[in-house]
Each structure stands twice: as C-alpha cells, then as structure tokens.
Amino acid sequence: MYLRAVHAETSIKALFELIQKNPLGVLTTAIPSTTQHFIQSSHIPWVLDIISDDPDAPVKGRLRGHMARQNPHSKTFIEALNAAGLPSASPLQQEVQVLFTANPHHYVTPKFYTETKPATAKVVPTWNYAAVQVHGKATIYHDSSSPESAEYLQKQIQDLSELCETSVMGYTGEGGRPDSWKVTDAPERYIDIMKKNIVGIEITIEDIGGKFKMSQESTKGDREGVIQGFENLGTDVGRDVAALVRERGEMKDAAKK
C-alpha cells in the first residue's frame, strides 16, 4: 500500500478501530499449488483480537475467520500443509495479507475544487477512501475432528456471530432492540455438520499500515468545496465522506500548529 505521508495513519489503535467497524476483509495469498491459482483472494469477515497497539510489538493482534471447505483457497491451504507433512492447526510457511476498506468511500469530481479549478483549472478526479493492510502468518484449522481445530472453530463462529449480531445489526436486546441470534439457537448436530464444511484461519498481525485519503493534500478552500459537494449529494455516503474530509482536514491543520 502506498502510504503518502499526508494520508498515512500512524496510530495502530485507529487502524484497529477501522477493522472493527469494517470486519469484511480480503485475504490474499501467493501459495504454490498443483490444482489452484498461485495468487488467490477471498472476502472473509474477521474477529479482531487486540494484543498491543505498540508499533514495535512483534505481534500486534490476531484475526480469526473461516471459509467454506469447497473454496479453492481452502483446498490450497490443505494441500500446502499436506505437502509439508503438517497436521491441522499448523501455520503456513507463506506470509498472507488482508485488506480492509472503510464503507464510506466515493469518487471526487474536479468540480468540487472550488478554489483551484476557477483559478488555474489544474485539477483532476480522484477517489477518497480509507483502508488498512495487514501482513502476518496464518494457522489453518481444517480437521474438525481434532480437539484443537474443533475448539477453535466453535469459538470463532460464536464470537463472529456475536460481533455481527450486536455490532453490525444492533441486536443487543437493550432499549427495545431485538435479542441477537446465537449459535446455540441452531441444533447442535446441525452446527457440527456445518463445522465439517468450513476451514478456520487465524492470522498473527505482524505488520499493519493504513491510510485515510480524504482530501488532506488539498488547500483549505478546496477541502471546503469537497465537503460542501459531498453534503449536497444528499446521500448517507456523501454525508459520511464529508464528515471524514472535515475531520482529517482539521487534524492536518492542527498538526501544523
């Protein structure tokens, strides 16, 4: 990821918060296989376990997720472990990457640059977005009959369900909100069958970086034009991007003082 200084987010805590608010990440790997593509990507919702927000910590956290056993990605993982003679609940040799993108992102038309466009016309389109990129090692849990893998899969699906039911859906059972769905609401035998059809993935976060590209590089006048332009769209995304442009612009201005 290109981390231009004006856009780079140096706070690991802030990067973790982006992941927690946007748990669907794209897992990308480059693993040799005799049957599947060398480079593969899969969209996976993740549970984040925070260990440390110290940038010098060797392991800053863990991402826990799972994917369907029928996914070509899963077949590559199992093939790689089998080729190395490693059992389930073993780490892959190769580094993996997960990319998270914040929900509010949008194209930026040059028409929004109300200071520079009328003065020089030296403006071009861009796209405002925020993203976090994680690198680390992945442990694969593919045998649900082994105690270690079974325990991991059970905890992971319970924690992920709770995260999505409460944080994403708002089903907290409080203030008139509905109660959350729980794994125990489904028949135990059914869940056991489902666990046989998924592969667990646990990634140690060894390196993390991210950016909020929200027009900070623009002049204050152009930023105001971008904010007004997005607010005038009258959409939720427009309002959210406008708020981020304002927030990040204020942070940039404050850093100069």
From TrEMBL:
Q: Which InterPro entries match?
A: Split_barrel_FMN-bd (IPR012349), TR_PAI2-type (IPR007396)
- Pfam families, sorted: FMN_bind_2
Superkingdom to which the source organism belongs: Eukaryota
PANTHER family hit by this protein: PROTEASE SYNTHASE AND SPORULATION PROTEIN PAI 2
Q: What is this protein called?
A: Unnamed protein product
Which species is the source of this protein? Aspergillus oryzae var. brunneus
